Amino acid sequence: MTAVDLPHPHLNLAGLASIPGADEPQNRKDYTSDQEVRWCPGCGDYAVLAAVQGFLPDLGLRRENIVFVSGIGCSSRFPYYLDTYGLHSIHGRAPAIATGLATAREDLSVWVVTGDGDALSIGGNHLIHALRRNVNMTILLFNNRIYGLTKGQYSPTSESGKVTKSTPLGSVDAPLNPVSLALGAEASFVARTIDSDRKHLTDVLSAAARHRGTSLVEIYQNCPIFNDGAFDAIKDPQSRDESVIRLAAGRPIRFGEGGGLGLVRDTATGTLEVADVADVGEEAVLVHDPNFADPSVAFALSRLTDLGHSGRTPIGIFRQVERPTYDDLAREQVTLARDAGAGDLQALIDGRDVWEVS
Amino acid sequence: MTYVIAQPCVDLKDKACVDECPVDCIYEGERMLYVHPDECVDCGACEPVCPVEAIFYEDDVPEEWSAYVQTNVDVFASVGSPGGASSMTDLLPDVLPQ
Predict the structure, then answer these.
(1) Which of A43, A46, A55, A221 best tests the B interface by mutation, with the highest count of B CBs <10 A?
(2) pTM over 0.90
């Protein structure tokens, strides 16, 4: 078999370059549908919806060229509440449908709304292949570490030992780390944010939308009914300075009161460790570079979680690199094939690779 | 649209709603509490926990307290959108309806 060098037609094209702009300025109401929002009182989904409705006007795209595709779950009701195009689609298969849309229609801004159950249980396969292919879409993965719609069973991100209706003696499963999974699947944009931090959520989603390729944004989202308080340590004003590590490109990764703590490389193990900046010195603190081609450091960052030994969670953009997208390359091939002139169907059926079984 | 706190909260300030709000958008004034109209995400968590039923969806505020819709807007005129009540150190100066 042979391989060919693929063209790189849109390597430097911005994520939204092929999408028509709005004719006139928009506001939040333009993106608010007439549907009554039906989530439980206090659900984190309300906060994410408000943030998305608030920042979509700033993207300045034609509403008719935006589509939200969801799977199944509480968060997958999202498309009903946005006055854009939308599909409440098949369980776990939203990335597959979005792949088709993004490939057939380069003039669409394609979004996927999914949850930890939809994306990582039944849809795990579709998620990793969308990331691997780098299809031009933005995936919002609402992670509440529980099955909410089915009323409180453990999910693929529930912590080990968690007692739920389906694990009365405690879960014996190890949870998935969505950011680590995405980095392992060659994702070109991976970020994490928190439902209740409107500004951070907006900044991350805005960067994700502008990225060309698949953007995965894990959103820590509180389920007040079946897993209330899952992220309290990250949200509580008393503890959040210590437990949240805010990532900013080009800046030393420091956190805690007065930035007294920092992340340093453990050269013996290849991991990142939390250190007192006063002890190790400012120059030893890792400077965050999400654009670095090799994902190893981003992966090491992703291993720090509130469930792990550090008890701390990085939020922000872990990785943001440019590489060719599946849909750009596929369209380029179609164009090249068309330019080559009319094909010969019979010759294709007859084939060139003939063999005889004797 | 947003939730609104009305007259029953005045001089009471139970604050059960503050603990319940997932986005920290209920601010304390000298005499009552206020929902920030731009920071509220309409989730409705505050409404059922209020012991004196002072919280209403904007469209459902009783006629006699309708002025409180504007009160919950006006009280933030001087501070804008602080992005979280827990960051406030001072109580908001009240602008109660006459």
Answers:
(1) A46
(2) yes
